[in-house]
Amino acid sequence: MNDILEYQDTQTIREILLSARTIAIVGLSSNVLRPSHFVGFYLQRHGYRIVPVNPREKEVLGEKSYAALSEIPFPVDVVDVFRASNAVPPIADEAVQIGARALWMQYYVISNEGAAIARNGGLHVVMDRCMKVEHARHMGRMHWLGFNTGVITARRLKISNQ
Amino acid sequence: MANSNPPQADDLHQFGFDTRAIHAGQRPDPYTGARAVPIFQTTSYVFEDADSAAAYFNLQEYGNTYSRIMNPTVAVFEERVASLEGGAGAVGFASGLAAQAASFFTMLRPGDHVVASKALYGGTITQLKHLFGKLSVDHTFIDPDDIANWKNALRDNTKAFFGETIGNPGGNILDIEAVANIAHAHNLPLIIDSTFATPYLCRPMEWGADIVVHSATKFIGGHGTSIGGVVTEAGTFNWSNGRFPGVADPSAAYHGLAFHETFGVYGYLMKLRAESLRDLGGAMSPFNAFLFLLGLETLPLRMERHVKNTLEIAQFLENHPMVERVKYSGLESSPYASLAKKYLPRGAGAVFSFDLKGGRGAGKNFIEALNLWSHLANVGDAKSLVIHPASTTHRQLNDAELAGAGITPGTIRLSVGLENAEDLIWDLERGLRASAVRESSRIYANDKINEKISED
Ligand SMILES: Cc1ncc(COP(=O)(O)O)c(C=O)c1O
Question: Is the pLDDT of residue B254 over 60?
Answer without folding.
Answer: yes
